[in-house]
Amino acid sequence: MENTSKRILVVDDEQYIRELYEEVLKAEGFAVDTASDGEEALAKIIAGGYSVITLDVVMPKLDGLGILTKLKESTPKQKNGPIILLTSLANDPAVKQALEMGAQKVIIKTDITPKQFVDMIKTAT
Q1: Which CATH architecture has domain 7-117?
Q2: Model confidence over 39-76: pLDDT tens digits?
Q3: Is the pLDDT of residue 2 over 60?
């Protein structure tokens, strides 16, 4: 199945994670964009047009919660799909706060395989 009309934004400061998710999503036909810090991510999210956004919590310049806060103050130029939090922080208060701020789902990075990640993106789009 061709997913090229589905644009995914992968936001993570860990290069290995970014490249892994980008590779598995592109293999499934998704158009993938990445951001390595919160400021870069916020600019791309505000430009908009993403089917799904995966967002890390702990990042330099602006963390995931900071991005969610700023999104409450500004409307993306093009509508975005759901924001899915990808984090290593299980049971962290930031996770609950992110869900309250509009993140649709939280995925703990260590609990998910690349195939499960792709399946989750397909379900969300």
Answers
A1: 3-Layer(aba) Sandwich (3.40)
A2: 999 999 999 999 999 999 889 899 999 999 999 898 89
A3: no
Q: What DSSP string runs through the chain? A: ---TT-EEEEE-S-HHHHHHHHHHHHHTT-EEEEESSHHHHHHHHHH---SEEEEESS-SSS-HHHHHHHHHHS--SS----EEEEES-TT-HHHHHHHHTT--EEEEGGG--HHHHHHHHHHH-
Sole residue written with tokens 């869900």: 99
Check: CB of residue 25 under 8 Å from CB of residue 121: yes
State the pTM of this model: 0.92
Tens of pLDDT, residues 17-33: 999 999 999 999 999 99
CA distance 98 to 28: 28
- Sorted by sequence, the CB contacts under 8 Å of residue 23 that are 6+ apart come out as none
